[in-house]
Amino acid sequence: MIAQQRVAKNVTIMPADPVLIQRDIRKKRLRVAPYCRVSTDSDEQLNSYEAQIEYYTAKIQDNPEWTMVRMYADEGISGTSMKKRKEFLKLIADCKKGKVDLVITKSVTRFARNTVEGLQTVRQLKNLGIGVYFEKENVNTLNMDNEMLLTFFFTQAQAESESLSGNVKWGHRKNFQDGKVYYHYDSFLGYKKGEDGKPVVDEEQAQVVRRIYSQYLMGYSVRKICSGLEADGVKTARGTDEWHDSTVQGILRNEKYIGDAILQKTYVADLFNHRTKKNMGELPKYYVHDCHPAIIDRATFQKVQEEIARRAGKRKTSSKAKTELGKYSGKYALSEILICGECGSPYRRQTYMPRGEKIHVWRCLSRMEHGKRICKHSPTFKEEALHSAIVAAMNEMFSQQAARDVLRESVAAVLASAQPEMTLPAVKSKIAALEARYKELLDLVMAYSARFEDFEDEFRTTNEIIADLKSLQTKLELEQPSTTDLDRRMEQISSTIDHLDASITAYDDIRTRQLISTIKVLDKETLQIRFKDGTEITQSIEK
User: Fold this and answer.
1) Residue 500 confidence class, pLDDT cut points 50, 70, 90
2) Contact 366, 323 (CB under 8 A)
């Protein structure tokens, strides 16, 4: 075997340029960007936050090789996700723009508590030639040969965050079991934080809440309620001028307005993306009764919930009907309550323009869509004729004086309250009771769908009574009014009420929704109108 001789290769060494080496060594001063973060708003953490800013400012100023880019600091933000850390995202953006040479931070836990996001960010910066120096771990990512050690540190930080999150969740759920309610006043319309830390009613905002509930029961659509609030310049709980449907819907469904609270309606499904999920039974819920003052009474709240369910429910009006009632619309009251007596389908409004003149009529929906095959005899009505018939039925209903009786009894109950003597405290008590009752009378009138003007005299009379009592209050000695005096006063009030002209002269959609449950078309000349108190009136339609 012939031994092979190793022939030396001719290699010429080209030394580095000493000028360039010196230039690299004496590179312009490093542009350093310190990043600090605290994860809670506690005083202790905020002090740490201020201390970190002070520390890094002094540290960079004392190093002649460094120059400060700017301080990047997130306050009260979790480190499990980067999405809400505005200053951190600004830091990364500036790094990409070439404004930073080195990032320094106290520890891995301050930089990120998510292993994946932390490693991805470090790699991204390293590819840009930017190092991250973690002081506590004494690690500079530009000098690392592998990421094993850094991966360990990020994993440890994530595990610590998961453990802390578990402890916080346990604490919240223990508080839920004990009935502790958390209030977010910045989005809680109608309430403000009291001196004792508990919620108190903000009367100005509470009026807005009552308005929303009242208008919804009067038949307003959610969108119409929003438009009205915006038109009147009413601001939301957060102080904005724009009202969204979801905001009003949330108010209408919120049990906190009756003084109760359901706890753990939602929960954080993922620690790292902070995704909130509606609790559909995965976790227990806790219902706390009477935990703060109510703005809405329970009866009204229940009526609203029933109305929400009614509007949301799509149903057929009879087994023959081929068309669903569909989505609730607040535009026309008759769209929901006017029903064909033959096939059970709802009536719908149509507009014709013969000779350029608009004519509005109401027709059976099944007959419109399927012709006489489904509904052979359903009549078509002109809108004016329908409205006139409904107004006539309402006036007949009001002739029974149901609303007057309720008002009369309400005033009498206050005037005839069991007080042995008309002393000064008794007068004050009656004034307070009458003033409170006066507000209730407004609701009673609304419950019977009457216009305020129709009962203006009753309210004027009540005001006169209050004024009389206030004049008595100014006297040092009061004479007790006899039962005869009270009876005479009630006779005067009753006489005033009985002589009121409460006739309705014009059709109104809101009144119709409030007062009538269904209108069934019996034939082309007759309607069967059922009121919400159970009264039924057969009303003829004039041609």
Assistant:
1) very low
2) yes
